[in-house]
Amino acid sequence: MILAEETLARVDEFAFVLLGGLILLIILVIGWSGVAPYVVMVEPENKTIYMERGSYESFELLLNGSAKNVTLRVEGEAKDWIQLERYSLDVEGVERVKVEIMVPRTATPGEHTARIRVRYYGTEREVNLKIIVAERVEERREINFGDFTISYLMGEFVEKRENFRVERSYFFEKSRGFVAILDPEIMEIARNAYLYLVIDDTNMLSNLIIQFNGKKVFDKKVGQEELLIEIPLEELKRKNRIRIEAGTPGIFFWATAWYEIREASLVVEYNGTFFRKFEFSVDASEIENLKELRLEFKVEKYDAKKLNDMIVEINGKEVFRGVPTLLYFNQEIDKEALRAGENEIRFSVEPDTFYTLSDVSLEIVKYSYKS
Fold it and tell me: Which of 11, 293, 312, 346 has its CB 3.0 to 4.6 Å from that of 320, i.e. a possible disulfide?
């Protein structure tokens, strides 16, 4: 009986604690639900603008958050120069407010300040504006790319050796090697490469061994025949070394193995556009204050019967396509292709066309301000 009463007392005590916790939770929920999390972020918080007297500029103020009856007010020395698209609004998500600035012609040169106060539910945020009144001038920078030819190439490169003999015994060896040097433009547009040999005569006592850039690409016994040995394009180098030799005569230790070779050639077939590309840097201030971008060059040589298009791309965006003004080319191109930091310009042509250009350059024209 006493044990039952103690158990009942403990249950009552636990129930009381549980009830108290539940009441506290209800109070917290009611309390928090009565306070809305009104937060509005404003961008930019600070902005500096260079302007001439009598000039106009605008930018967007971004308000991001959730609040009703948000008000905006302009204060400060230059407040009369500034107009807002809206002075009060409800913010739910992202809202944009256009800020317009008109500097009077009578403004004094130098620094002028203003601020935009953003208020909601007793909270205030501030956007500080600095307007620097100065004379706007043009600055020019030239980026030079030099002289070069762009063309569409089609053909084959052949490096040939004729009428020689390779032989080997256990006491004597006579091999033949030669070097084939490829132009960089051919390497870029190579489509196929192979070694071509014509065997005039042999005593067939050994294998014919051929090495390409130190790697064995052929090692077989052959007779009077023509050989065509494929060379993977990735094996091609600027300077390619070919070595041809006879193997040892095997069990015929007293004999000399030999091959009479009428022709040995490295053949590289190519087909494609030989383009030129250059990297150059552009400062962020040049992008921000860019007025125009001009491409300039002289056309030194061309085929008058095959005047097809030249193509110029900046960062993969085509900024010029057409037959350039012959002799001297000076034309404004799309400045939107530029970006702050590293850039790439690429010159190419359509098939059956070539242009030799000199004094190729980009001229960047930007605005700057002089106090």
Answer: 312
Burial 145-162 (b: 16+ CB within 10 A, else e): beebbbbbbeeebebebe
Map residue 178 onto helix, strand or coil.
Answer: strand
Contacts of 83 (CB under 8 A, 6+ apart): 99, 100, 102
Is 8 inside a domain boundary?
no
Which two three-digit tokens encode residue 316? 């993969």
- Does residue 33 lie in a domain region? no
Round to whole Å and give the CA distance between 28 and 23.
9
| pLDDT for position 32 | 43
Q: What is the pLDDT of residues 203-253, one digit of tens each?
A: 999 999 999 999 999 999 999 999 999 999 999 999 999 999 999 998 888
Give 67-73 contacts, CB < 8 A, sequence gap 24+.
67/38, 67/39, 67/40, 67/91, 67/120, 67/121, 68/38, 68/120, 69/120, 70/40, 70/118, 70/119, 70/120, 71/118, 71/119, 71/120, 72/97, 72/116, 72/117, 72/118, 72/119, 73/116, 73/117, 73/119
Contact yes or no for 301/314 (Cβ under 8 A): no
Q: Tokens representing 85?
A: 């698209």
Same domain assignment for residues 247 and 280? no
Token pair in block for residue 140:
């020019």
Q: Both 243 and 349 in a single domain?
A: no
Does residue 22 belong to any structural domain of this protein? no
The maximal CA–CA distance of the chain, rounded, in angstroms, is 124
Q: What is the pLDDT of residues 136-187, one digit of tens each?
A: 889 999 999 999 999 887 889 999 999 999 999 999 999 999 999 998 878 8
Q: Is residue 27 part of a domain?
A: no
Residue at token pair 């494609």: 272
CA Rg value for the chain: 40
